[in-house]
Every structure is written in C-alpha cells, then in structure tokens.
Amino acid sequence: MQLAVEEINAKGGIHGRQIKLVVEDSGYDPKKAVLATQKMLTRDEIFIMAGSMGTPTVLASMPLVLRKRLPHVFPLTAAQQMYEPFNKYKFAMVPPYYHGMRSGTKWMVKEKGKKRVCILYQDDEFGLNSYRGVVDQLKEMNMELVAETTYKRGATDYSSQIARLQAANCDLITLGTIIRETVGAMAEARKIGWDVDFLVCQAGYAPEVAMLGKGVVEGLYGVAFTPIPYYDTTNNEVKAWMDRYKAAYDADANIQAATGYQVIMLTALTMQNAGRDLDADSFVKGAEQIRGYKDMFGSPPLSFGPDRRLAAEKTFLGQVQNGRWVTVTGILDF
After folding, report:
1. Which of 135, 134, 120, 123 lies closest to 187, judged by CA?
2. Please, is 254 exposed, middle or buried when counting C-beta atoms within 10 Å of its C-beta (0-12, 13-18, 19+)?
3. Is the torsion defined by CA of 298, 300, 305, 308 positive or negative?
4. What is the pLDDT of residues 136-182, one digit of tens each?
5. What DSSP string describes 112-159?
6. Spacing of C-alpha 223 from chain mean position
7. Which residues make Cβ contacts (< 8 Å) with residue 238, sequence separation at least 6?
8. Residue 20 in 3-state DSSP?
9. What CA–CA distance (Å, rounded) separates 176 from 251?
C-alpha cells in the first residue's frame, strides 16, 4: 500500500492532490480495531477507510466509518457482510468466502469424485462464511455435510477435531481457516497417517502456508482470486513491480503485497473518476463507473455499479505442488 501511494504521489497525485496513508494495527482483535478506527476518524480525520483486514475486526470497526457517511472500501476479507446488506458507502473487492467455497466444493465433488465432505472452521463469522458456502453447495447437489467441527480463534491444537473427522470417514475436509490453522490441521492429519484431501478458503491461499507447512501441506487445494506472484513464472510487468518492491523494502513481494497494491490502485482509480470536486458522494459515483477493471496480477475483472457493491464473484483453485502454489483450474462458477 505504501509503495502504491509513493508511486502515485511521485506522479503528481490525484488531480493534483497527494495521498496520505494512515495505518493502525488491530492485532486481529475487534476491540483494538474499534479503538484504532475511532482514533483515525477523530484525530487523523480520515476520508476513506481502504483495505481494513480481518472479518471479526472489520465487522466491529466498519459501522463506525459508515455512521460518519464515509467510504469503507476494498477490505481484505471475503465475508459477505463487506457488501451486504447494501450500503451506499461500502464496496468489496474480493469474492466472498461463501462463493469460493461453493465453487471449490462443486469442483472437488464433480472433478475429484468426493462423496463424504466435511468441514473444520473457525468459530466466528469468518468461519461461518465458509461453512455456509459448503453446506449450500452440497444441498444443491443433493448431498449432506458428513461432519463438522470448529476451533476457537488462536487455537493451536486440532487433534480432537481431526480425530472426529477421521472417525466420520471423510474423503474431503474443507477448511474455514487462515495460515497457522491450515498447517496445524493438516499436520495433525499427517501425524496420524491420514492422507485425506483438504480444500482451504481464500484466507489460507498464502505463500506462508506452503513455506511453513513444507511437505505437510503438499497437495492442499485452495480457493484463490489473485494468483500468487512467483518471480520466475510471472509476467514482465509484475516482475518490474517486484523489483521496485525489493529495492524499496529489501524484502520479496508476496500475495499480501500484491493485494495491498491492488487496494490503493483501485482506490486511486475511483478518486480519479470522481473528479476534482472530491467528496464522499463523488467518490461513490467514481467507484460506480468502474467496469471490467483488470490488474496486472491476473485477477478476474472487477466491476461496480449503482446497485453493485461486490466487484467480482469468480474464483479459481490453486494447489500446493513442490512447495509452491500452482493454478489447477480455470475460473470457476457454482
């Protein structure tokens, strides 16, 4: 996000105005998220909340922004509440966990012949978004969820959950998990010698899963929206961006960096569309003008409109192969 802001400002900003990026850390704690948002709204007098992260934290903080009639845009969570119910000032960039898990489950059943689908998910609204997608897709295919089990946010032991799913004779475990939980659940299954297939929601489609999990997560399927950039396989435009990132921060650009860059570039495009007389309402109109926007990373096209607050609904599946994520399907629907 910082790189995008610096590049935009170096070119003169938006209609002659410089962008100022204000960042606070919620620690993935809803209470801290509320306090940070209150600080940004009062002391920093922010105009837009862009790219806030985490389902429970955003659900706690977003109402404060909307109450001020300010734009809350492109949060880094795929929960359905990011665009539903309709609110003039909220826009979502990422396809919902619900949509992704529906299309992913459908593909695993139809293409991989899975018959006994189960789920492990975080015991909060984040996990429930994935759960609902799996259940609804199975119902549409006249199937039932064989078994379900949950864990509390911050948990590190998944032995009882995996034992329960193994006892149910699952042949696919869907995961409403993030990074550590994905690795932990699969490690437990492998430890007891259970070689079952796993499908994780978008939150687990991260290079850290492959890096930290090593051989434990080989074969893991993941719902994805933006392909993880690997320098030796990506296009020249992304390579140049990765070089700029490396030069600026002495670190390798990853999918999180790509997503943060996307957020600011989409926000900047919206402000550009809004014109010189920028306020919350002109910003909304600027977003509603976006049709078929394509980023350099290879994500599906993004579009908004007067009645459309979700930019994209389509996802694809990746799989961990030889320590990195490889795209294994085209764009999926359900």
Report:
1. 120
2. middle
3. negative
4. 999 999 999 999 999 998 899 999 999 999 999 999 999 999 999 99
5. H---SEEEEEESSHHHHHHHHHHHHHHHHTT----EEEEE-TT----H
6. 10
7. 229, 258, 296, 297
8. coil
9. 29
Token duo for residue 19: 């962008």
Domains of the chain with CATH codes? 2-94+236-241+255-288 (3.40.50.2300), 97-225+316-327 (3.40.50.2300)
CA distances from 318 to 32, 45, 105 (A): 33, 40, 13
Chain segment 43-58, per-residue pLDDT in tens: 999 999 999 999 999 9
Model pTM score: 0.86
Question: Are the beta carbons of 274 and 285 closer than 8 angstroms?
Answer: yes
CA dihedral sign, ordered 113, 115, 116, 121: positive
pLDDT in tens, 90-127: 999 999 999 999 999 999 999 999 999 999 999 999 99
Tens-digit pLDDT profile for residues 5-43: 999 999 999 999 999 999 999 999 999 999 999 999 999
**Closest listed residue to residue 209, CA positions, set 120, 95, 324, 127:** 324
Residue 334 has pLDDT above 80, yes or no: no
Closest CA to 220 of 169, 192, 182, 181: 182
What's the longest Cα–Cα distance across the chain? Answer: 63
**pLDDT per position as a tens digit, 225-274:** 999 999 999 999 999 999 999 999 999 999 999 999 999 999 999 999 99
Angle between helices 236-249 and 255-274 (to 10 degrees): 100
Q: Which residue matches tokens 């509320």?
A: 34
Q: CA–CA separation, 33 vs 53, rounded Å?
A: 10
